[in-house]
Design a protein that fits this description.
Elements lengths: L7 H16 L10 E9 L5 E2 L1 H12 L2 E8 L3 E3 L2 E12 L7 E12 L9 E8 L2 H10 L1
Parallel strand pairs: 1-7
Antiparallel strand pairs: 1-2, 3-5, 4-5, 5-6, 6-7
Length: 141
C-alpha cells in the first residue's frame, strides 16, 4: 500500500519499498510505485509518459540483468519531492567478463499527496552515467 512519508523513518521506509520494487526486476510491479500517467526522465533519454511506456522501457533493460541493487546514500523531502543520491549495482546476464557494475546516481521523485494516487510517484527524474551498463549489455548479447 502506498503512503505519503512525513517523518525521516517513513521516508526511509518509502525509499526501501521503492527500491525493492525496482530491484525485483519485475516490470509488472511498477504500478505499485507509479501513477498510471507518471512521467519519467532518464537523463537525455526522451521523456517516458505513462505506466505502459515506463514498463516497456525498464522491462527491456531489466530483461538483460541478473541483478540490480540500490544503496541509498542520503535523502531529503521538500513538499512533495524526495531528493535521493544513491549507488546502483548491476550484474548482466551472460556477461563474458562477469563484471559487477556500480555507478552513482541521483533521483528526484514527485509523490502524490492525496486522493487515490496518494503515495505514488507522478513524476521522476533520474541522473546517472549508464554507459558502463550499456557496454555490458552489448557485450552479453
Amino acid at each position: 500500500m502506498a503512503f505519503v512519508p512525513t517523518t525521516r523513518s517513513e521516508i526511509q521506509a518509502w525509499l526501501e519499498r521503492f527500491h525493492s520494487v525496482n530491484d525485483s526486476l519485475d516490470p509488472s510491479r511498477l504500478g505499485e510505485i507509479y501513477t498510471e500517467d507518471a512521467k519519467v526522465q532518464f537523463g537525455n533519454v526522451p521523456l517516458l509518459e505513462g505506466l505502459d511506456q515506463i514498463r516497456n522501457f525498464l522491462g527491456a533493460t531489466w530483461a538483460g540483468l541478473e541483478m540490480m541493487r540500490h544503496e541509498t546514500e542520503s535523502f531529503d523531502m521538500v513538499e512533495n519531492r524526495i531528493y535521493q543520491p544513491c549507488h546502483i549495482t548491476w550484474q548482466v546476464k551472460n556477461d563474458p567478463e562477469k563484471e559487477t557494475i556500480k555507478v552513482p546516481a541521483a533521483a528526484i521523485l514527485h509523490v502524490e499527496l492525496s486522493g487515490e494516487r496518494k503515495g505514488l510517484i507522478s513524476r521522476a527524474a533520474f541522473y546517472m552515467d549508464g554507459s558502463p551498463l550499456m557496454a555490458a549489455l552489448q557485450r552479453s548479447s
